[in-house]
Design a protein that fits this description.
By secondary structure, the chain is an alpha/beta fold. Helices cover 47% and strands 18% of the residues. A five-stranded parallel beta sheet has the order 2-1-3-4-5, with helices on both faces. It is globular.
């Protein structure tokens, strides 16, 4: 197994089915996975310091994915954040600057493309340390 395959991924989404689906996908791909139902739950856990990549829904109550990305960047500037959304109008309106240069996937997303993006983000993150 490669270093990236042993990485820990945080999945933050208020939709239980999406969390479970990503858990299955990432687990089958060899990643360790930590699931969170909200940005606040993630931010108040030890995971912020422990995970290697974050996958977050954009449209969540209280702290949306864009705000979470900014908070994560303040705490860990090189931690990869991949944003996902089922709201196509959010994806269309999100400029590269809004996303902070991070990857954005629209639901339903292509699983292979998501896994490729995760591995690329992990390699780039490891290179910037």
């Amino acid at each position: 197994m490669t270093k990236a395959a042993r990485a820990t991924i945080a999945v933050i989404d208020d939709d239980r089915r999406v969390r479970e689906s990503l858990d299955d996908l990432l687990d089958c791909a060899g990643f360790r996975v930590r699931l969170f139902a909200s940005s606040g739950e993630f931010l108040h856990s030890s995971a912020v310091c422990e995970v290697d990549c974050v996958i977050s829904d954009i449209a969540m109550p209280t702290i949306d994915g864009f705000a979470l990305q900014r908070l994560v960047r303040e705490a860990r500037p090189t931690l990869p954040v991949i944003l996902v959304t089922g709201r196509h109008e959010l994806a269309a309106a999100a400029t590269e600057a809004d996303r902070g240069g991070r990857v954005l996937f629209e639901k339903p997303f292509d699983r292979e493309r998501l896994l490729a993006a995760i591995n690329l983000e992990l390699r780039e993150s490891a290179g910037s340390k």
